[in-house]
Amino acid sequence: MRLLWRLAGVKGRARHPFSGTSGAPMSTTVDAAASVPTSTFDQLGLSAPILNAVTDAGYDTPTPIQAGAIPLLLAGHDIIGQARTGTGKTAAFALPMLDAIDLSERAVQGLILTPTRELAVQIAEAMESYARHRPGLTILPVYGGASMMGQLHALRRGVHVVVGTPGRVLDHLRRQSLRLDKVQALVLDEADEMLRMGFIDDVETILEATPTERRTALFSATMPRAIETVARKHLREPQSVTIESHHRTTIEQRFIRLRYPEKFFALDRLLRASDHEGVLVFAQRRADTEEIAQKLCELGHRAQALNGDLGQQQRELVLHRLRERQLDVVVGTDVAARGLDVDHLSLVVNYDLPFDVDTYTHRVGRTGRAGREGLAVSLVSNRQMAFIRQVERQMKVSVKPMQVPSAADVEHRAAEIHAARLREILVAKSPELSPHYNLVKALVDEGFHMTEVAAAASLLAAGDTLKPPTLADLNPIAPSSHRNSGGNKKSRSSRHRGRSKGRGSRSSKSSRGPRASKSASDPRASKSAGDERNERKDRKTSGRLATRKTRKKVSHRKGQSPPRDRD
Ligand SMILES: Nc1ncnc2c1ncn2[C@@H]1O[C@H](COP(=O)(O)OP(=O)(O)OP(=O)(O)O)[C@@H](O)[C@H]1O
Predict the structure, then answer these.
(1) Which residues form ligand 1's pocket by a CB distance below 6 Å?
(2) ipTM of the predicted structure?
(3) What is the average pLDDT across 403-409?
(4) Strand partners, 379
């Protein structure tokens, strides 16, 4: 694995010169760059069991955020950690927390709050692996939509670390099933998103239930100014660890300029022309994620939607299938934008643009993780070009134009895939070929050349999979606001059902398990009480967001801020 951060210029700098509570000294800034060239995990002050787990995870060198943050957290400082997406912030806060747990005391000593359920599960799993050489250390993910009974049971037995979403953690606090009076280390992961989602009141109530002498850390790839208020109020003399790269990121960012009706066509072409195995497509509305995923399935892509309308079990299943490579494409709302770490995810498509550059940053950061290469493509109208320029300015990157892949590009790729499948059969010398030898021989005896017979057989096997649908073949996905009762018309794209690039197409894919069906893109798990509560919260949140979005649209009209998503 190529780790680009070894090459990247990094520096620590003061971003958050907050004073602590009661006029304490200004925060110190750590020059992470100074520690990077020399630091190894051994030098950070971690104990042997944690170091062994780090070795097991295959980490050779600490990333800059780890080199900067771990010694400070071990020394008991509060910190604000900011580093690009996919650069190991989880281990930066998790390793020192796990190191400090006193196993003789069966009480919650570490608490991590995250904005999404998926992230809570992912972080808890990462922590399990980092704690594998500290037997008896227990970690519990606590989030809405999951069985309350299971969580109550685990909490009664006692756990050392809780990783949770604010809503469910608060639920447990109110039921008195969770006590936080022994918490020594607290992390607000993706702190800015929790703020943005309106969780701040819940977070503050939770903080009040923890001892004031705890260590507190805020982590995110983006730290808007609003986070200062939270830090000033809840952190004591925080140290800032900000890692900045002056070199290129590992994410290549592109845009395709098009009209709205061309969007779905462009997406299909992007998927067909590339050999990306894990693709995350972002749409703004839940209903659109369903429709896009369904139409992609009709075209033979293995796709599924991921949004807040799905039951929690279903959401987890979608991510599980993506991780297991049983799916190629997940079409999600921003519920999938934060923190998700799927290592083979190599393409992110902004089918719709987000409303702000921070969200864009997190979306594209789902690819190019841990130094791997990734591509992010945004589908934009002329009017949305201002947003791309804003991204370039704010992220200090270049976002270059690209064309919708041509039919020739797609045919070339499809031919490669087809050839790979034929090659696989030839190499395997499958016994199933036997009857076909006689058949070919008979045709050759009739006077056809061997090559002609092979070409005809190849044509028969490929069907029309080598020819991609044209723009005219595909029914565009209408903006939600344009949809009406006429929306039930049979899609012309159904003509292409089964004309997939992927029907067992890629040699390695044929063994990847069942293909997603139309119904697979739209399943609903039965909703638990927890789900309902969370959905109420979702609705409350989306109400708040809607108000904010309306405000942003207004400010954009004044020429200040992000574009409207729809033409
Ligand atoms: N020192 C290391 N060496 C190699 N890989 C690492 C190292 N530290 C973490 N990783 C891997 O890097 C990937 C990204 O880490 P992580 O999810 O913690 O990133 P992040 O900075 O929190 O990203 P985001 O801002 O998107 O949440 C993970 O797969 C993790 O296992």
Answers:
(1) 59, 61-63, 66, 83, 85-91, 221, 339, 341, 343, 365, 369-370
(2) 0.99
(3) 90
(4) 256
